Amino acid sequence: MKKKFAIVIVIVLIALAFSFCSSSTEHSSNPPHVTISSPNNGQTISNPTTLIQAEVTAKETILYVQFIVDNEVVNADSTSPYEYEWNNFYWADDQLHEIKVTAYNSEGVPGSDSISVKVSEDASSNPTLLEPADSANVTNPILFKWRSLPEAILYEVIIKKDTLTFLHTPTDTTITKDFPTLTGEFTWKVRAQNFWSFYSNYSQEFHFTLTD
Questions:
Q1: Residues 116, 39 share a domain
Q2: Which of 2, 78, 121, 143 has the fewest CB atoms within 10 Å, counting from its CB?
Q3: Pairwise CA distance, residues 47 & 169, whole Å
Q4: 172 and 202 in one domain?
């Protein structure tokens, strides 16, 4: 009798374990359904920015949606409509890039969709130089000023005088420099860097003349 009772207990435990595993499997097999509606797979992008849009459906509440470019999370959105204005000019290299959108439901279960797009070099952008203007005559100290670019966390400013190169990486769009022992013609240009260490194109190169 005791042996039969023990067998029954074992069977019940096995049934409970199977039920738990089945329930877990059923739960994990219902991820959010994600569809990237824009841009289109295989599309060539020629504009500096592109609106990435995704349609997300799920039985559970959606906690957030991640926008991922080449395995780098570039944005997250927690409210519908799920979209992101991608500053793709940082990726303007005539190469294919993967866009992936992953949604997480209230249970932490992810669902994804991905596409590939080609970002044309025509989609490039660069800072616009303001001061000193091209061909300007200036005296020390010199104010360098340019227009910002979206998502830039710093700028690379290159100032040249003959064989001398001065590199500066400010986080703002102005710097003030003094060259007390130098006069004559200089050049300068600027490019932007985003959080993921991608660069914009350099600006047009401007010339200026430093006088006494």
A1: yes
A2: 2
A3: 27
A4: yes
Structural domain containing residue 158: 129-210
- 176 φ, ψ to 5°? -120, 125
**Residues 25, 113, 88, 168, Cα dihedral to 10°:** 20
Token readout for 48 is 């500096």
In whole numbers, what is the pLDDT of the chain averaged over residues? 90
Specify the DSSP class assigned to residue 10.
Answer: H
- The answer on 166 and 198 residing in a single domain is yes
| Radius of gyration, alpha carbons of the chain | 28
Does the pLDDT value for residue 166 go beyond 80?
Answer: yes
Structure tokens that stand for 86 in this block: 């991608």
Residues 201 and 136 in one domain: yes
Backbone angles phi, psi at 126, to 5 degrees: -155, 160
Numbers of helices and strands, H then E, in the chain? 1, 16
CA 73, chain centre distance (Å): 7
Looking up residue 55, the CATH number of its domain turns out to be 2.60.40.10
Predicted confidence band at 212 (pLDDT cuts at 50, 70, 90)? confident
pTM of the entire structure?
Answer: 0.82
36 with 111, same domain? yes
Give the model's pLDDT for residue 28.
Answer: 52
